[in-house]
């Protein structure tokens, strides 16, 4: 297999192997550094708070900072690239985690509440969590002092985290005290992050903070999927019964990171209201800044990336405490933290600066496709690779169906994208990448040429080929007026053995890594119709064919792709001929579902109402996007769940924290009785994909009928657009479609009850073997 691919790539891309050698020297460690940089950028792009506020260009963040790493992916450049990225991100809390020893508290907790007068005006109360092992008299001491003093230092430091005692310290002392210091309800800090119900199309035309609505005021699901800001509240404090003893008093609290999280947040909120001073000894815990995602990277580097931020009342970001002092060994009353608290209380109270509320809109911008006269730069090529890889990593509901480890796919493609310095090489790298997800939706399109750039595989030989059994046959010779003599040498039904002396089986193996398909049915449909005879316009190929007179060779030239499709459209063997609704033998009705419109259903139903059996030909892709559900409503006798969709609900780069949302597809019966209580047969084949498969599933659900045909393409769930630099784009299936019993449509296709295989004679004569089988079954029952 590897030898075949090498031959193929050399034949197709004469400059590819030389360019590839330029990066073949990349070591595994160097590739992994580049891959890790792409993963870090993906987390920042989708989850860092600055990504969704419209204040940073996430693409530029990657493009600018990866340049030194591309030039020399050594350990130093990797570290520097990360530092530069985080510097441009503008978040000092995100970045490389230094391997420093974590400071330990030297604070010596006492087993009893400790009270002292610091100065004539200041009273000191030490209430560590250890005091809650026994009876605690802190409230009594505080109440006694309130009558004599105006200024209070409340020391809540602990020597270690103790969940049970820390919670008692909070519930029994801190919470009641804070409630007495407020005059109205106080909202505690809110954690704000992004959520995604699937991924939004990257070609969406607008910046927005709401979903688009159509003229009727309903959401246009074509632009799905939903996204926004996710706020998680920590709760609120309500005012306790007014206590005049607290009027006019000033408090300064001393805490460290070993206090209970509720204590920390409550006192931060109180300081935000300008109702106390706050002194912290040692570092602030991460949860004060939000939530973080930790990553282990190459070269033993560890980083943390903020994935949520903390908002205070009024929608403003929180402030630091009044004083933040390092840990010390001093546990006396002259310790720096106590002196700092004393200074704050004896000085003028400094109110927090009033800030404007943070925006609450998640701004999603159209992904630029970076038009380029030539091949995009290495930075842009990697941007496309990283963008696609991260989109699939976080948002594909079918990642589990990818045969390769997804990390390995990234590592394997980095050298290919770096080597892709010509249009051919870049195009083939994109084809390989998009095909790697094994999703029939992931068709690669270039705005400059359609399925391929101009001059690169933009032509086809003027023949149609079909796989029947294990052999490939020429099933149509197209009417190319410029090659009539050569084409006359080929008889329809001849077996195609090789092209340019390469056996067709070998060609299929060589193309397999580059053809987008969910299953073999999808691959065969794409390859034998579009890619087997593909090549540059006007390039010549020698066909080796076996006909009635033995094996012979015929030379043909490739014609423009558009001309090829136009000529194939003229090959009409009566499979799609109108009328699309008719009465067949023995009062059996026939309806070609994907060629009709919803507005025609009343008249078509009236036409078929006296038929006991109806054949629903659901082959192909619908002209009317709602025809499946609308027709199903005419057939349904009761409200029914015909399928369900599974949407990735993404709230964190930690995959284990994400989950799926299930939405049932429900059909409500239409009042028209003409199509109800009939016997139904559905026809399907490899031409059914996406909504074409969804229609089959929906109609199977309401008819409980028999499905006749062949495996469908197995690519369902709305196609989500992914852009690539150089004006390319592709897609992936954005949600999973399932039968009510949990059977997936993706990869498997729709359920087929009676399989009908192709035969060469049926193809050549235009015999519709699937329809005939359905008629046979309908007549015999």
Automatic annotation (TrEMBL):
Residues annotated as signal peptide: 1-19
Organism field: Pedobacter vanadiisoli
Pfam family name, one: Peptidase_S41
Transmembrane spans: none
UniProt protein name: S41 family peptidase
Record keywords: Signal
Residues covered by the Tail specific protease domain: 587-756
């Amino acid at each position: 297999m590897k030898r075949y691919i090498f031959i193929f790539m050399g034949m197709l891309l004469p400059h590819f192997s030389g360019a590839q050698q330029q990066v073949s020297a990349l070591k595994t460690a160097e590739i992994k550094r580049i891959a890790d940089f792409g993963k870090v950028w993906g987390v920042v792009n989708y989850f860092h708070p600055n990504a969704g506020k419209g204040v940073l260009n996430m693409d530029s963040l990657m493009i600018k900072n990866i340049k030194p790493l591309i030039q020399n992916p050594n350990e130093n450049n990797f570290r520097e690239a990360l530092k530069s990225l985080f510097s441009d991100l503008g978040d000092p809390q995100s970045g490389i985690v230094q391997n420093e020893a974590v400071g330990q508290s030297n604070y010596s907790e006492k087993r009893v509440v400790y009270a002292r007068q610091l100065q004539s005006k200041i009273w000191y109360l030490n209430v560590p969590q250890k005091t809650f092992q026994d009876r605690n008299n802190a409230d009594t001491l505080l109440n006694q002092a309130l009558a004599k003093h105006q200024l209070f230092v409340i020391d809540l430091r602990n020597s270690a985290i103790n969940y049970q005692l820390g919670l008692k310290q909070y519930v029994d002392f801190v919470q009641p005290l804070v409630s007495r210091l407020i005059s109205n309800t106080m909202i505690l800090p809110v954690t704000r992050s992004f959520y995604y119900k699937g991924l939004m199309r990257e070609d969406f035309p607008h910046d927005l903070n709401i979903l688009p609505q159509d003229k009727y005021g309903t959401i246009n699901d074509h632009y799905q999927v939903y996204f926004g800001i996710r706020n998680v509240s920590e709760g609120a404090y309500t005012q306790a019964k007014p206590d005049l003893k607290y009027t006019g008093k000033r408090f300064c609290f001393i805490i460290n990171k070993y206090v209970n999280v509720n204590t920390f947040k409550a006192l931060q909120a109180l300081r935000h209201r300008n109702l106390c001073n706050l002194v912290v000894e040692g570092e602030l815990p991460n949860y004060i800044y939000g939530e973080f995602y930790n990553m282990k990277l190459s070269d033993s580097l560890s980083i943390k990336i903020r994935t949520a931020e903390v908002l205070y009342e009024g929608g403003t970001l929180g402030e630091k405490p009044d004083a933040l002092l390092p840990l010390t060994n001093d546990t006396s009353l002259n310790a720096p933290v106590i002196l700092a608290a004393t200074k704050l209380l004896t000085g003028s109270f400094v109110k927090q600066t009033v800030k404007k509320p943070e925006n609450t809109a998640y701004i999603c911008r159209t992904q630029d496709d970076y038009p380029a006269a030539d091949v995009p730069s290495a930075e842009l090529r990697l941007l496309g690779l990283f963008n696609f890889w991260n989109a699939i990593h976080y948002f594909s509901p079918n990642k589990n169906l990818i045969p390769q480890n997804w990390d390995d796919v990234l590592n394997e493609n980095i050298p290919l994208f770096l080597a892709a310095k010509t249009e051919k090489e870049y195009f083939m790298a994109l084809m390989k990448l998009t095909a790697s997800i094994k999703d029939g939706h992931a068709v690669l399109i270039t705005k400059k040429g359609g399925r391929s750039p101009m001059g690169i595989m933009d032509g086809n030989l003027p023949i149609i080929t079909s796989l029947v059994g294990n052999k490939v046959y020429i099933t149509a010779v197209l009417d190319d007026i410029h090659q009539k003599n050569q084409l006359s040498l080929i008889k329809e039904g001849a077996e195609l053995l090789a092209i340019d002396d390469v056996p067709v089986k070998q060609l299929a193996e060589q193309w397999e890594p580059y053809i987008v398909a969910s299953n073999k049915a999808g691959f065969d449909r794409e390859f034998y119709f579009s890619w087997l005879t593909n090549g540059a316009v006007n390039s010549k190929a020698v066909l080796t064919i076996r006909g009635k007179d033995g094996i012979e060779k015929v030379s043909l030239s490739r014609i423009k792709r558009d001309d090829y499709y136009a000529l194939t459209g003229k090959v009409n063997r009566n499979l799609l001929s109108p009328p699309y609704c008719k009465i067949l033998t023995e009062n059996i009705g026939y309806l070609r579902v994907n060629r009709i419109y919803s507005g025609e259903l009343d008249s078509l139903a009236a036409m078929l109402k006296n038929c006991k059996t109806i054949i629903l030909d659901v082959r192909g892709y619908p002209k009317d996007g709602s025809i499946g559900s609308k027709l199903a409503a005419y057939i349904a006798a009761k409200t029914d769940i015909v399928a369900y969709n599974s949407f990735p609900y993404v709230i964190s780069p930690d995959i284990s924290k994400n989950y799926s949302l299930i939405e049932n597809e429900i059909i409500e019966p239409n009042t028209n009785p003409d199509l109800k209580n009939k016997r139904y047969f559905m026809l399907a084949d490899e031409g059914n994909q996406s909504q074409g498969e969804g229609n089959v599933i929906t109609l199977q659900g309401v008819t409980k009928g028999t499905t006749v045909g062949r495996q469908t393409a197995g690519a369902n769930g709305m196609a989500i657009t992914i852009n690539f630099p150089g004006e390319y784009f592709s897609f992936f299936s954005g949600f999973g479609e399932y039968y009510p019993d949990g059977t997936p449509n993706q990869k498997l296709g729709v359920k087929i009850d009676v399989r009908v295989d192709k035969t060469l004679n049926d193809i050549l004569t235009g015999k519709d073997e699937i329809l005939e089988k359905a008629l046979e079954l309908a007549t015999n029952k």
